[in-house]
Amino acid sequence: MEAELKGMLSDLQNLKSSLSDPSHQASVDHIRLRVENLTSLAMAEPTRRSKVKDMSAEVVDSNPYSRLMALQRMGIVENYESIRGFSVAIVGIGGVGSVAAEMLTRCGIGRLLLYDYDTVELANMNRLFFRPEQVGMTKTDAAVQTLSEINPDVVLESFTLNITTVQGFETFISSLTNKSYSQKKEGTGVDLVLSCVDNYEARMVVNQVNNLLLLLFFFAGVSEDAVSGHIQLLIPGETACFACAPPLVVASGVDERTLKREGVCAASLPTTMGVVAGLLVQNTLKFLLKFGQVSPYLGYNALKDYFPTMTMKPNPQCSNRPCLERQKEYMLIKPARDAVAKAKREEELSAIDIPIHADNEWNISVVDDCDDVINARSSDALPEGLVHELPNADVYKHPTVSNENVDTVDDLEDLKRQLEALNAD
Ligand SMILES: [Zn+2]
């Protein structure tokens, strides 16, 4: 359309030159002016929807929130609109972080803080979100451009910086503690941090900051062969932090930068990235809007479609000092929290005193707790071809004497003897 209008302007210029009567030339100038206005309108930014003051549940095609507000009517979420009061920080706007940012934007999150230092490249086009015309833009600027078009109600703050530099680190801290968006919040100015960075150094910075500021955060990671990933909820002092169980290669003191080989890059698939981003935001929504059960750890193995879950307790020998301080604080408040939880459970049990089904037509009986344990263990069985990297902690808590773990018992006895010999010296 733009080219057509420019062609018309050129034709009008030629027509004007061929006319000798000044009054005819004035008429051509008048038409030219109108075509110029049309050209500038055609080049202007695409029309954006105006901001919406309150989220409405009204079922009309023009309501951007009708499908989300329906979660209330379906009894899943008590107050969906409360999502507008939350601030979420996303560190790393790559294959997972950008998709997570788009999902939260479409859900109408109140405020998003976006951190990345990188620029968009053609090599990123195998993933979702970024477009070829954004190549060369910083990922944060490109993200703000797209997200503000999708939902202008979301407050977007972008930080083009590297959090592993001194200046980047300081800006990172000050932005997280800025409470101008919501004065009511205690502590920091954000409700949750999503760590979607792709290197250990940056992960440790996010870990350190969250342990220091007592901020909850989800960590999302995808393996470099692109066929597995996981998400993990880190609650300072309550669950394992990132330093509590570092990867073996890092614990061995190897600099991760030396692991990269020239001309070799990590593989990535839009599918695996999309699945992990989906799991991440699903749990973020459950956490913020208080529905369902939030997974403390959820893995994804694409080759077997296997989704392991587990809980990781903090390591009392963690190398991160703030983590140890948070662990001590948590141990102090834990008895009171357990008592409240126990009282709540008992209240719920007493509320269902009356038999739910007075006449048991089908002779259904409640299965004994012991069977549940057996069932739970059998569901832990791995699909064929997968092996656990680490042994199950229960094996050590409840050792059973069998041919299979005679070696383990011997190893423990051996270790005990070695320790006794050391103490004797
Ligand atoms: Zn720790």
TrEMBL record:
Q: Which InterPro entries match?
A: D-isomer_DH_CS1, ThiF/MoeB/HesA, ThiF_NAD_FAD-bd, Ubiquitin-activating_enz
Q: Which residues form the THIF-type NAD/FAD binding fold domain?
A: 65-319
The domain of life for this entry's organism is Eukaryota
Entry annotated with the keyword Zinc: yes
One Pfam family named in its UniProt record: ThiF
- What GO biological process, any one, is recorded here? protein ufmylation
User: Which terms does the record give in the GO molecular function aspect?
Assistant: ATP binding; metal ion binding; UFM1 activating enzyme activity
Q: Which UniProt keywords apply?
A: ATP-binding, Metal-binding, Nucleotide-binding, Ubl conjugation pathway, Zinc
A single GO CC term, please?
cytosol
Similarity remark: Belongs to the ubiquitin-activating E1 family. UBA5 subfamily.
For this entry, the protein name equals Ubiquitin-like modifier-activating enzyme 5
